[in-house]
Amino acid sequence: MVLIRWAAAVAIMIFLALGALSVAIRPGGKPVWLSLVACAVLSWLVYIVLTRKARRRIQILAEPFPGEWEAVLQRDVVFFRVLDEEEKNRFRKDIKLFLGEKRVTGIGMELDTTTRVLAAASAVIPIFGFLDWEWDQIEEILIYPSRFSQDFQFGEIRDHRTLGMVGTGSMNRLMILSKPDLVQGFRNPGDNKNVGL
């Protein structure tokens, strides 16, 4: 909401500044109203661009939290179960925003709800204590059906040892995870081997 108010103030200031400038200059002898309309359109476009992310977030948060997601959190995410109710609501909000803004893509497989929610929980848990911190540097999570090699091959070959990684270079802005290791990390929280975290 603060961003929307700030963007509205910026758009109004742009309109007033350009409006005053166009009245003073009157380019090409054009009528003042035409310049004011152009200033209004430009100001509106600035507002739309500056508030796009905030408006999208409002839309995402207006949706109810899916029952399927809640079931996954209750069943598989110990971290979630030990939170108080206020913290659980914030965790749910963070999950909704993460899944609403980031792509979670299955490589060579269809993704199920459990995998999507666990991938989001993997992103939310490490930053949960930092209220204003977000995963701006990640746009997509790729989920492989098994462990994979350093050149992203997967299948029957035995040298596939990579459980997960954060992309660099041409793979920048990606997180890459092995589905079995992601799920196992949440099912066995005591082993401290959660690939998503």
From TrEMBL:
Q: Which GO terms describe its molecular function?
A: aminopeptidase activity
Name-wise, this protein is: Zinc-dependent peptidase
Recorded hits in InterPro entries, A to Z, give: MtfA_fam, MtfA_N
Pfam families (alphabetical): Peptidase_M90 (PF06167)
- Could you list this entry's UniProt keywords, alphabetically sorted: Membrane, Transmembrane, Transmembrane helix
Write out the transmembrane intervals. 32-50
Which terms in the GO cellular component ontology are assigned? cytosol
**Which SUPFAM superfamilies is this protein grouped with?**
Metalloproteases ('zincins'), catalytic domain
- State if Cytoplasm is listed as a keyword: no
